[in-house]
Recover the amino acids of this structure.
């Protein structure tokens, strides 16, 4: 199964840690959004980033808008201060509207020092931690078992 993982990770590199662990588990290619042009050669594509104002990074959203994803198996992941999986819903909705077939959604907490949080030393310090990364790896392996 040829897999591509697209990741944008700008605040603290939190989501990149998750993307690297998933890419390792899936022997996937890993790319930033700007480097993706044609995904026709991939059986499975993962889209992930930090959550910024309740959304995935703009580069991910813009990439999804411009790609042909009809019938493509896709998954979504994120890190955020809160770590809620429901924060992936907007991107999942966009992917469905593009005709893609979502097969999974993963989220965990990520160190967050945005705005006033900085003054208290941030939240979710040390996340993603090894436990989060183990969960990310298990999630990725589960995608292979599904195929
Ligand atoms: C501008 C900005 C907005 C953010 N908005 C949210 C948010 O709406 N909800 C949340 O839970 N975390 C929010 N965060 C925290 C990030 O999602 C979190 O730190 C994430 O792990 C960053 O991932 P990255 O290091 O891969 O960029 C925000 C952070 C920044 C810098």
């Amino acid at each position: 199964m040829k897999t591509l993982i697209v990741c944008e990770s700008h605040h603290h590199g939190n989501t990149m840690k998750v993307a690297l662990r998933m890419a390792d588990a899936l022997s996937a290619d890993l790319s930033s959004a700007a480097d993706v042009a044609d995904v026709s050669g991939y059986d499975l594509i993962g889209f992930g980033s930090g959550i910024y104002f309740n959304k995935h990074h703009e580069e991910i959203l813009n990439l999804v808008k411009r790609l042909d994803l009809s019938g493509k198996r896709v998954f979504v992941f994120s890190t955020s201060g809160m770590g809620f999986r429901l924060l992936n819903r907007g991107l999942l909705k966009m992917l469905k509207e593009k005709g893609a077939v979502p097969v999974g959604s993963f989220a965990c907490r990520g160190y967050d020092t945005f705005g006033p949080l900085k003054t208290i030393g941030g939240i979710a310090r040390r996340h993603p931690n090894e436990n989060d990364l183990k969960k990310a790896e298990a999630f990725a392996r589960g995608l292979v078992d599904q195929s």
